[in-house]
């Protein structure tokens, strides 16, 4: 796929999705960090239900650390892998207090040093909380990038590097959420909604569906 076609794709996605942002509810970088850690192999909807109860009670590293692992589990037990996630969140709260004065750091290296925070989570925080031009390749972005021919790759890191190289500069900040939302609602896994897709004519997927 050439640069002109990629630019047209992102222009159309940006027009169709005028406010590309996360569907996780948060009001501070720390709330976002907790929500993203909880969201691994879980739905944003499920996470939002849990955090709607949790954050009014504890939404700072100090408050969560004082709540403790068992206390936290009561709020997140509806979410998959809640035992390990609760352990990670309590430990990262402790480390934020010890190393960062209770503030969420804004570098990849410092974020990835926190329990439960890998490259994808760090990229989400850097992009969504701090406005950096990072792209966290989840299943939606991996699928859209490969299916359209925009940024093919055998693994998430390959796709991430391709996107970093080829996403037009003016769209780099929002590319992450544009691709996630397009993959979540239009370019879905089993039967993509090609009939209502704004980039269907530019997409290089050979097995387009005739209608939704």
Q: Give the CA-based shape.
A: elongated
Question: CATH homologous superfamily of the largest domain - what is it?
Answer: Hypothetical protein, domain 2
Give the name of the CATH architecture of the largest domain: Orthogonal Bundle
Provide the β-strand percentage band.
Answer: under 5%
Oligomer: single chain
The rounded Rg comes to 18 Å
Total DSSP helices: 10
The total tally of domains equals: 2
Determine the CATH topology of the largest domain: Endonuclease III, domain 1
Using the coordinates above, name the CATH class of the largest domain. Answer: Mainly Alpha
Main traits of this protein?
212 residues; mainly alpha; Endonuclease Iii, domain 2; Endonuclease III, domain 1; 0% strand; elongated
Provide a brief overview of the structure.
The chain is mainly α and 212 residues long. It is built from ten helices and no strands. The model has no long low-confidence stretch (mean pLDDT 94).
Structural summary, described in words:
By secondary structure, this protein is mainly α. The protein folds into two domains: 80 residues, Orthogonal Bundle (Endonuclease Iii, domain 2); 100 residues, Endonuclease III, domain 1 (Orthogonal Bundle). Helix content is 56%, strand content 0%. The chain has ten helices and no strands. The longest helix has 19 residues. It is elongated. The mean pLDDT is 94.
